[in-house]
Design a protein that fits this description.
By secondary structure, this protein is mostly helical. Helix content is 31%, strand content 8%. It contains 13 helices and seven strands.
Length: 288
């Protein structure tokens, strides 16, 4: 069947819905499906049949049952019984509160690493992803089908990786996700080489990662965010060390070579001293 150059036989169901119900122009079901059960066009279901077909397709995938009484109260019972049945079913249509998992573990026997550990709470709470960032184009069957194993087997590797690949490169570095044992959660120091626990532990991710959904490509040099430090604009005590008079007059680069502020170098001036064995001042408790 062709309409204005569109081959309906090659279209998927989602494509057909878009054609018949374009955004902002939702067409009523009865505009196409006849109200009467006696159809003049046998190639198209009547309105009641279309409703049933739409419901049954999902219910068959979900529970495997499409009995009439699963939706309809049976004739012959008392009115009170029918009312109670309908009320019970109406209550069931309200979806219960979804409790988000903390950690999910996926078995991947065909991959090099046999297990994938997914920290859901970190993606939602730490990285700030919205539900719809990952959960799109999903049906009830993904959670409610009785045979989830067969549902996963029908998916290709690309389909299984589709959600992750929007943020991660799933074509390379498979070992980042696939392992032979449960992996630890995200650690900024081990994953990026930049330890934030010393001075940036209370800083929110989006303070540095200003582009939503992008967490790579940042310059880790302090000057990138803080500008140029001098003795006048930087209070050294925030590091946990109040410099003595001798070291207070030195330039930052005298102790911190190549802009490495994680560990000072003493060898420029002292042959027999090193940090932290020798402290260039007084140790105090850090506020951060």
């Amino acid at each position: 069947m062709w309409v204005e150059g569109i081959n309906f036989f090659t279209l998927k169901k989602a494509d057909l819905r878009f054609i018949y119900n374009p955004p902002g122009q939702v067409i009523g079901c009865s505009d196409c499906h006849e109200l009467m059960r006696k159809r003049t066009d046998v190639s198209k279901p009547d309105l009641k049949g279309a409703y049933h077909r739409q419901c049954m397709e999902c219910h068959r995938t979900w529970s495997g049952k499409v009995d009439c009484e699963s939706c309809h109260a049976l004739n012959g019972g008392s009115q009170n019984t029918k009312t109670q049945i309908l009320q019970d079913r109406s209550a069931k249509r309200v979806h219960p509160k979804i409790i988000a998992p903390t950690t999910l573990k996926f078995d991947t026997p065909k991959a090099t690493g046999k297990m994938v550990t997914f920290y859901h709470s970190q993606h939602a709470d730490l990285f700030g992803l919205e539900c719809q960032s990952c959960h799109t184009n999903e049906s009830c069957a993904k959670c409610h089908t009785k045979n989830k194993t067969s549902l996963l087997k029908t998916k290709t590797t690309e389909q299984k990786h589709a959600v992750c690949s929007s943020c991660h490169n799933t074509k390379q570095n498979c070992g980042n996700c696939h392992s032979h044992s449960v992996q630890e959660g995200f650690n900024h120091a081990t994953k990026t080489g930049f330890d934030i626990t010393k001075f940036h532990g209370k800083v929110s991710c989006n303070t540095c990662h200003t582009e939503k959904g992008k967490f790579t490509g940042l310059n880790s040099e302090c000057i990138n965010c803080h500008g140029k430090w001098t003795q006048e604009n930087f209070q050294h005590k925030v590091t946990g060390v109040i410099l003595d008079e001798t070291h207070l007059t030195l330039e930052c680069k005298d102790c911190h070579q190549e802009k490495n502020y994680s560990k000072p170098i003493c060898s420029n001036c002292h042959e027999d001293k090193s940090f932290p064995k020798n402290i260039p001042g007084k140790l105090i408790k850090k506020n951060g």
